[in-house]
Design a protein that fits this description.
By secondary structure, the chain is of the alpha+beta class. It has a five-stranded mixed beta sheet with strand order 18-19-17-16-20, covered by helices on one side. Strands 24-23-22-21-25 form a five-stranded antiparallel beta sheet. Strands 12-13-15-14 form a four-stranded antiparallel beta sheet. The longest helix has 25 residues, at about 295-320.
Length: about 850
């Protein structure tokens, strides 16, 4: 086993090689090969698309890192200053030194802030494999250069145009010589040297200043208009004298007929060397708009959290017997959303938020029936049994992770179709990240500080400028998501008066912030901000202010439980009593315990909500309780037990009066009939003109028949002021209870991921080992075997030669290179250390797979010894 341990040590040594151990890399693959394992892990964590699937070696990793889709995704996740640095490299010579880059970013006059932030920006680009090479030869990956370099079709964000060499590529040699001569330079023998001389002139500060000093005033005004971009302008076939002066000296160069461009070297001289008009090395600070007491914030947020629970319960209770129908295309109709908003006493956008939140938490779904409707799921009944704080935590956790975006409801999709609540087209993969980031920025402020919304949006636009540039309607999607996150966090009770609560902070996994000292103001908030893009902490650091991705599942479960524990003492304790009033109302001074609330909801109608809920007793509500199987004695006992005030006499009379008449008439199915022992009462009904629509006729002294169904007959008699009871075919009174319609078991909707998920530590470790092993197999020098092999061709040896080489390697402990074809016919090359050869198999340490494996000898195409060095 000494061979195995030695080979493992060799692998570890390769993985820990520092950049100093290698000469200057000639390609991105060589630059990646010089990285240590921690650096590779940082790359794969920041660009998880590179690990799906795991590359076979570092060359394949470098190739994948240079693809257009992967580079675009990496650029989208750069902050503004790192992106400005990449844009500057795209217009710099390739390769460029660090000093050249610093000059482009800070200008001739220099800028200490830019100079201080630039190393971190370059390190960020290096970490994400967008830049490689030493400080003397910085190279932007070719795909990124193509995306960011200026072109007529895709202008550069820097506002710079093509170089002199690029702009004169189609110009005649004679015309180039004319420009060189007019500019005061000696003529040359070829166009290449002429362009080189002109470029040298434009990049020489003193000579350019002397040349421009003789320019007409109108010509200098033209240059001023073009200097910050766009660099293109229109000219006529016979340009004015000041334009002719610029054209003759190459300060403007023609591109197409009638179009001229300001060369990049000229623009940089006029800009004093700066690639950007306004470099932004530091993130804008999130400033507080108001500061409140942390206790007030937590209490306000807790009150709103309880309101959120009550609203979701009311929504699901309204849909308990079956909710609105599902549209053919999916989702709620506009009419049903309006009805839901009226029932909840909120606006339609807020109603859409509550509906989507319940859906994201798995509390409602479609029932899947032929007449498909929305209804509560079995998970709703389990949710109701949980303590209030845990119920809230489940809603908050579902909101944080959901990619469905209620704010889009009512808008239009790409095909100009209306986006409906619970319908398709509402998923936005960036929503969870934006919600986490907005709350993290709030967590960085002092406790009780409510942020200025404009400063939050400015910060987000700095952190993801390319994402912000992708517009989804009139405003960029990321800003809209941030505004919705702020309002939805307030509705849900994560924030109170705009400031993040203690339980909201715990939900993020952030430590409790210290209460600000007097006079700290916005300066305290600024102290938590990074000083530059490279000052961001790793994504797994426990500072919520710097967290850009959601917590892992296990961490989130712990954070959610902590948030529930903090919220529980702040929620009002449910009461077991009400205050009965003489005006047939009952006042609930706070939240009621569930059995009391459920029974009171049947016996009375809710008249008003708020801090105290007012219930009103009516003949219809009392009859509803009697229909549910309660007797008058039950209702009297219930009210006496749960009222802190004596039962008012009018309420007792109302219950007795409704109970006395309840069930005196019986309605059953014939088509329908009415029977009553009091024939005088039946005569009264027959004589009533309002009964004409029921088409009643007497069958017997105590029985009336109706040409309508029992339900219609019940409603008709009740509308006339009677209190009939329904009965079964056996003559028993039917007790009517609300039928709780439930869907089959449903899972909550899965969020739509924003690309591959970040790999965990286990996957990263295994992937790096596999990449290192594959790279070793692909790059280890081998002794020649017969004729030289073409690139990627497997070695070919006879069975006898293969067996002999394997046996020799077992004795000497050497590693060998083999070609191997598996059972599926897939060919690969591997570096192995043979341990034992017997029975037609070789047992060896496979460095490519980083494990001991057994290979059938007949599947080995050939073997070669590794080179001595």
């Amino acid at each position: 086993m000494a061979v195995l341990s030695g080979l493992a040590e060799m692998s570890a040594t390769v993985g820990r090689m520092s950049p100093e151990a290698h000469s200057a890399p000639r390609s991105l693959a060589e630059a990646l090969r010089a990285r240590d394992d921690a650096s590779l892990a940082a790359l794969l964590r920041s660009r998880p698309d590179l690990i799906t699937p795991v590359p076979t070696d570092l060359t394949q990793l470098a190739t994948r890192a240079g693809t257009r889709a992967s580079v675009l995704r990496a650029l989208e996740r750069l902050d503004r200053f790192a992106l400005q640095t990449a844009e500057a490299l795209a217009v710099a010579p390739d390769p460029a030194s660090y000093d050249t880059l610093l000059g482009l970013m800070a200008g001739d006059a220099g800028d200490e802030t830019v100079a201080g932030a630039l190393p971190r920006a370059v390190a960020c680009l290096r970490e994400q494999a967008l830049v490689w090479g030493g400080d003397d030869r910085l190279r932007l990956v070719r795909t990124a250069r193509e995306l960011l370099a200026p072109s007529p079709q895709h202008p550069s964000p820097t506002g710079l145009g093509p170089t002199v060499q690029e702009a004169t590529s189609g110009m005649s040699p004679g015309r180039i010589q004319e420009i060189v001569t007019t500019a005061g330079l000696p003529s040359t023998h070829d166009s290449v040297s002429a362009v080189t001389a002109l470029t040298a002139l434009f990049t020489h500060r003193k000579k350019m200043a002397k040349l421009l000093a003789g320019a007409p005033e109108a010509a200098r005004e033209v240059l001023t208009r073009l200097v910050w971009g766009p660099p293109y302008g229109q000219v006529t076939a016979d340009p004015a004298a000041h334009l002719r002066w610029l054209l003759d000296r190459g300060l403007l160069l023609p591109t197409t007929p009638g179009t001229v461009v300001l060369p990049r070297e000229v623009a940089l001289h006029l800009r004093e060397g700066r690639a950007h008009r306004t470099p932004e090395p530091l993130p804008p600070a999130v400033t507080p708009a108001a500061t409140h007491s942390p206790q007030v914030v937590d209490a306000t947020a807790a009150g709103q959290a309880y309101t959120a629970l009550a609203t979701v319960e009311e929504l699901l209770k309204d849909w308990d017997e079956g909710g609105p129908a599902v549209l053919r295309a999916g989702g709620l109709s506009v009419r049903d959303l309006k009805r839901t908003a009226v029932a909840l006493d909120v606006s339609e956008p807020v109603a859409a938020f509550w509906v989507e939140l319940a859906y994201a938490a798995g509390l409602i779904a479609s029932d899947g029936e032929a007449d498909e409707r929305y209804a509560a799921t079995p998970a709703y009944d389990e949710w109701l049994e949980q303590p209030p704080a845990e119920r809230w935590a489940r809603l908050a956790q579902a909101w944080l992770a959901a990619t469905r975006t209620p704010g889009l409801v009512g808008g239009r999709d790409a095909k100009d179709r209306t986006l409906s609540a619970l319908g398709p087209g509402l998923d936005r993969s960036a929503a969870p990240e934006v919600r986490h980031r907005v709350l993290s920025l709030l967590a960085a402020l002092p406790q009780g500080a409510a942020p200025d919304a404009a400063s939050v949006l400015a910060r987000l636009r700095w952190e993801r400028p390319l994402r912000g540039a992708q517009r989804d309607g009139d405003d960029d999607l990321r800003s809209r998501l941030a505004r919705w996150a702020l309002s939805e966090a307030e509705l849900l009770g994560l924030t109170g008066r705009g400031a993040l609560s203690a339980h909201g902070r715990a939900l993020l996994g952030a430590p409790a912030a210290a209460t600000p000292a007097a006079g700290s103001g916005s300066a305290a908030a600024g102290s938590a901000e990074p000083t530059g893009p490279g000052d961001k902490l790793p994504v797994h650091h426990h500072r919520a202010a710097d967290r850009l991705v959601p917590l892992a599942a296990a961490e989130q479960a712990v954070a959610t439980a902590a948030a529930a524990r903090l919220l529980a003492p702040l929620l009002p304790e449910p009461l077991d009593h009400v205050l009965l009033q003489a005006d047939l109302t009952a006042v609930a001074p706070g939240p009621l315990r569930r059995p009391l609330a459920d029974m009171l909801g049947v016996l009375a109608d809710v008249e008003s909500k708020g801090g105290a809920t007012v219930y009103r007793f009516t003949p219809a509500s009392v009859r509803r309780a009697l229909d549910a199987g309660r007797t008058a004695a039950d209702l009297h006992a219930f009210l006496a037990e749960h009222s802190r005030t004596p039962v008012p006499q009018p309420l007792a009379y109302l219950i007795d009066d409704v109970a006395r008449r309840h069930g005196h008439l019986r309605v059953g199915a014939a088509s329908a009939y009415v029977r009553c022992d009091d024939d005088t009462l039946l005569n009264e009904i027959l004589a009533d003109r309002r009964a004409a629509a029921l088409r009643l006729r007497r069958l017997a002294p105590t029985v009336l028949a109706a040409q309508t169904d029992p339900a219609t007959l019940l409603e008709g008699l009740r509308a006339m002021g009677y209190s009939p009871a329904a009965e079964s075919a056996e003559g028993d009174v039917l007790i009517t209870r609300a039928h709780a319609h439930r869907t089959p078991p449903r899972t909550a909707p899965e969020p739509v991921p924003d690309g591959p998920p970040p790999p965990d530590a286990t996957l990263l470790s295994a992937a790096i080992r596999a990449i290192r092993a594959g790279d070793l197999a692909a790059t280890t020098p081998r002794k020649p075997v017969g004729e030289p092999l073409a690139g990627g061709e497997l070695p070919r040896t006879s069975s006898a030669e293969t067996l002999a080489t394997m046996q020799a390697a077992v004795l000497t402990g050497d590693s060998v290179w083999i070609g191997y074809v598996n059972a599926d016919g897939a060919a690969s090359q591997r570096v192995i250390a043979p341990v034992r050869v017997e029975g037609g198999f070789v047992t060896a340490y496979d460095h490519t797979a980083d494990e001991v494996r057994t290979f059938p000898l007949h599947r080995i195409t050939g073997v070669a010894e590794l080179a001595d060095d």
